[in-house]
C-alpha cells in the first residue's frame, strides 16, 4: 500500500510539472501573437467588435452569418447537442431553410449552403464559406442598389484562403465583410 501511495504522489508531482510547463508555453506563445491572445478587435465608428466571435445581423442589407444555438452570447458558448436524426433539430433546420429562401427569392432552388442553416459547435462561428456569401450576393446588390459584380468582387477580396493553400477551407468573416460593405459606394 505504501508503495502505491508513493508512486501516486510522484506521478502527481510529475503531472503538475508537465502541466505547468505546457501552460507556460501556451501563455507565452499567446503573448507573441499580434493581438497578445486577446482576439481580433475591430473598431467601427464608436463600436468595438471582436472579429473572432459571431455577430447577429438581421437587416436585409447585410450578409447574415451562421445561426447561433446560444443567441450569440459568448459567455454561454455551446452547440445544441442535437444530431441529424433528431426530429426537432430537423424541423429547426427546415424552418431556417424556408426563411433563407424567403429572404433570398432570387436564388430559386439553388442549393442552400449548409452553414447558413446550421449552428457551429460553439454557436459563435464568425465565418461562412465563400458560397454562403455568394448565395446572399443578389439580395445585397438589390437592397443596396449596387451591381452584383461589385458585391462579388467585395466577397472575393474579403475571402481568406486556406493556410499555405492547403490547410482548411476558404472562409469569409461576416463582420469584416459587412464593415467593408458599408464602406462601398
Give the strand tally: 5
User: Count of DSSP helices?
Assistant: 5
In this structure, how is the largest beta sheet organized? 3 strands, antiparallel
Rg value: 22 Å
| Order of strands across the main sheet | 3-5-4
Q: Fraction of residues in helices?
A: 40-55%
Structural class category = mainly alpha
Low-confidence stretches: none
Write the H/E string, N to C.
Answer: HEEHEHHEEH
Q: What best-fitting shape do the alpha-carbon axes yield?
A: elongated
End-to-end CA span: 78 Å
- Report the mean per-residue pLDDT as an integer: 89
Proportion of residues in β-strands: 5-15%
Question: What would you note in describing this structure?
Answer:
With 185 residues, the chain is mainly alpha-helical. Helix content is 45%, strand content 8%. The protein has five helices and five strands, in the order αββαβααββα. It has helices spanning 2-31, 87-103, 130-144, 148-158, 174-183; strands at 41-44, 47-50, 127-128, 159-160, 171-173. The strands form two sheets. The chain has a three-stranded antiparallel β-sheet. A two-stranded antiparallel ribbon has the order 1-2. The radius of gyration is 22 Å and the shape is elongated. The termini are far apart.
Can you summarize this structure?
This protein has helices at residues 2-31, 87-103, 130-144, 148-158, 174-183, and strands at residues 41-44, 47-50, 127-128, 159-160, 171-173. With 185 residues, it is mainly alpha-helical. Helix 4 packs across helix 5 (174-183).
Write the layout of secondary structure elements.
Layout: H1 2-31, E1 41-44, E2 47-50, H2 87-103, E3 127-128, H3 130-144, H4 148-158, E4 159-160, E5 171-173, H5 174-183
Antiparallel strand pairs: 1-2, 3-5, 4-5
Helix pairs in contact: 3-4, 4-5
Amino acid at each position: 500500500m505504501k508503495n502505491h501511495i508513493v508512486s501516486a504522489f510522484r506521478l502527481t508531482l510529475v503531472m503538475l510539472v508537465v502541466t505547468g510547463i505546457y501552460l507556460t508555453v501556451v501563455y507565452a506563445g499567446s503573448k507573441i501573437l499580434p493581438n497578445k491572445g486577446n482576439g481580433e478587435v475591430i473598431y467601427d465608428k464608436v463600436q468595438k467588435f471582436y472579429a473572432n466571435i459571431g455577430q447577429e445581423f438581421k437587416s436585409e442589407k447585410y450578409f447574415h452569418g451562421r445561426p447561433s444555438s446560444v443567441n450569440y452570447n459568448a459567455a454561454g458558448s455551446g452547440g445544441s447537442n442535437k444530431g441529424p436524426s433528431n426530429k426537432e433539430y430537423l424541423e429547426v433546420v427546415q424552418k431556417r431553410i424556408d426563411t433563407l429562401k424567403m429572404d433570398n427569392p432570387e436564388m430559386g432552388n439553388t442549393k442552400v449552403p449548409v452553414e447558413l442553416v446550421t449552428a457551429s459547435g460553439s454557436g459563435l462561428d464568425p465565418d461562412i464559406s465563400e458560397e454562403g456569401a455568394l448565395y446572399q450576393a443578389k439580395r445585397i446588390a438589390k437592397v443596396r442598389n449596387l451591381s452584383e459584380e461589385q458585391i462579388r468582387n467585395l466577397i472575393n477580396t474579403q475571402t481568406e484562403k486556406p493556410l499555405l493553400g492547403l490547410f482548411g477551407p476558404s472562409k469569409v468573416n461576416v463582420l469584416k465583410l459587412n464593415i467593408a460593405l458599408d464602406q462601398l459606394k
